[in-house]
């Protein structure tokens, strides 16, 4: 069996959302829902997708999904992500760390902070965007 890597996603890669097919196309499997440690800010980038970054102050816990992704598929997924998104280590609420999708600081600076909603799905629901 090929090596798989746990990947945390917090936006359009989530189950049923616009880019979820990118995960499915490489044979990724949904593992579980999770939340981050309360040290992240979430930004809406033009109401098209979110970007999440770790902060020292003013962060919150963000809802995400953990997927098991074949190692060979990680690069393909990253190449299809919007500009300004990258992979880094994300701290989960239980103190463990997994790879996950983060936003570069410059990407986040151009967005609207939506941390108070606790996640992309909740934000979309609150403002009437299709999730």
Helix and strand topology:
Blueprint: E1 4-9, H1 20-25, E2 29-35, E3 40-45, E4 49-54, E5 63-70, H2 74-79, E6 85-91, E7 97-103, H3 105-109, E8 112-113, H4 120-127
Total strand segments:
8
CATH hierarchy, class: Alpha Beta
Structure annotation, total helices: 4
Shape category: globular
How would you portray this structure in words?
It is a single chain. This protein has about 130 residues and is of the alpha+beta class. The chain has one domain (about 5-120): Hypothetical upf0131 protein ytfp, CATH 3.10.490.10. About 20% of the residues lie in helices and about 35% in strands. The chain has helices spanning about 20-25, 75-80, 105-110, 120-125; strands at about 5-10, 30-35, 40-45, 50-55, 65-70, 85-90, 95-105, 110-115. It has a 5-stranded mixed β-sheet. The radius of gyration is 14 Å and the shape is globular. The mean pLDDT is about 95.
Summarize the structure in short:
By secondary structure, the chain is an alpha+beta fold. The chain is 19% helix and 37% strand.
What features would you highlight for this structure?
Hypothetical upf0131 protein ytfp; three-stranded antiparallel β-sheet; alpha+beta; 131 residues
